[in-house]
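To illustrate the input format used throughout this study, we show a single complete record. The first block contains the structure-token representation of the backbone; no residue identities are included at this stage. The design step must infer an amino acid for every position from geometry alone.
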């Protein structure tokens, strides 16, 4: 590792949390709706409706339970039958039935389906792609169109779950794009590593860095007993205690949290308030990735303490604001 890599690894958890806190915007009266985060989760298919909901709700709930405390506006872009279900989960989300599966009676092409989603890009700060997406060919092709256009417009993206299959098959869509975070679990990391000739065994942090390098500097969060974060040059480890139960859907809390942190990163870089420090784009991306992992692990710990073996993904959603308070805390300017 280079000296820079060693410096990043040597940062304490307290120092990293302090840096993450710098990008958290205070709740000021001058802000208007949407300035502090417009995040869209793209996924949700006939079989999977929970994942996009958990991701979007984590995005919305991040920070303390004040008005507009997480992302100001959380969207879900999904398949029509999934939209009907997700709308019943919460009235707080904006749900757009724009995706189509191959079994649809409509005969539109992927580019035609993607067009209204692409039209939304100027109104969004961040895309979270993959929760509940599934492997339907038309859904995958539509996502490919959206990713390609979002990259042209420099929109930050988080790719998870079946969106990682797209990375595996069409790496050119994200390779070299430093506004992108991938969040593979153990199995997904193994598939990606095999596809790009990365050795899975040995040092986990170096393996994470090797995959990031193979993808041209894309940020990778390698989830596991501890989470490793790397852009191929720097490596961070997130080893806060988590819960003991590995219920499905916990990764959706991570993707939603990442979405909001990346939106706050944009607000920090735009100087929407009197910001602390002079953190750059690439450092902020790594901090957002690490911060999302730390918050998710704390959510898991809190939910497990409360629910034990009965823990479900929805239990993490209820702990997002508590985890934020425990690790980062609200700024004085935000308090009434």
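Output of the design step:
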């Amino acid at each position: 590792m280079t000296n820079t890599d060693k410096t990043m690894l040597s940062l304490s958890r307290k120092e990293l949390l302090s840096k993450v806190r710098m990008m958290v915007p205070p709740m000021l009266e001058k802000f208007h709706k949407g300035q502090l985060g417009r995040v869209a989760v793209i996924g949700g298919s006939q079989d999977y409706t929970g994942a996009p909901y958990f991701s979007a709700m984590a995005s919305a709930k991040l920070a303390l339970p004040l008005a507009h405390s997480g992302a100001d506006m959380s969207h879900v872009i999904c398949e029509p039958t999934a939209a009907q279900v997700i709308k019943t989960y919460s009235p707080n989300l904006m749900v757009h039935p724009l995706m189509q599966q191959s079994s649809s009676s409509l005969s539109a092409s992927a580019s035609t389906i993607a067009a209204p989603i692409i039209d939304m890009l100027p109104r969004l700060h961040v895309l979270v792609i993959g929760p509940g997406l599934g492997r339907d060919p038309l859904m995958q092709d539509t996502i490919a169109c959206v990713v390609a256009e979002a990259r042209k417009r420099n929109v930050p993206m988080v790719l998870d779950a079946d969106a990682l299959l797209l990375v595996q098959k069409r790496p050119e869509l994200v390779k070299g794009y430093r506004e992108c975070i991938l969040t593979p679990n153990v199995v997904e990391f193994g598939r990606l590593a095999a596809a790009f000739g990365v050795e899975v065994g040995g040092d986990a942090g170096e393996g994470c860095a090797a995959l990031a390098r193979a993808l041209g500097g894309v940020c990778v969060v390698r989830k596991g007993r501890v989470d490793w974060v790397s852009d191929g040059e720097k490596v961070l480890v997130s080893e806060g205690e988590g819960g003991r139960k590995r219920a499905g859907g916990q990764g959706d809390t991570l993707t939603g949290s990442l979405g909001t942190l990346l939106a706050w990163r944009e607000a920090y870089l735009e100087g929407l308030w009197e910001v602390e420090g002079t953190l750059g784009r690439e450092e902020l991306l790594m901090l957002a990735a690490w911060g999302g992992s730390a918050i998710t692990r704390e959510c898991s710990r809190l939910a497990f303490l409360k629910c034990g073996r009965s823990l479900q993904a929805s239990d993490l959603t209820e702990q997002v604001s508590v985890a934020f308070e425990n690790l980062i805390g609200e700024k004085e300017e935000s308090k009434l």
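Structural context for interpreting the output: Residues 64-69 have pLDDT under 50 and may be disordered. The longest strand covers residues 38-42.
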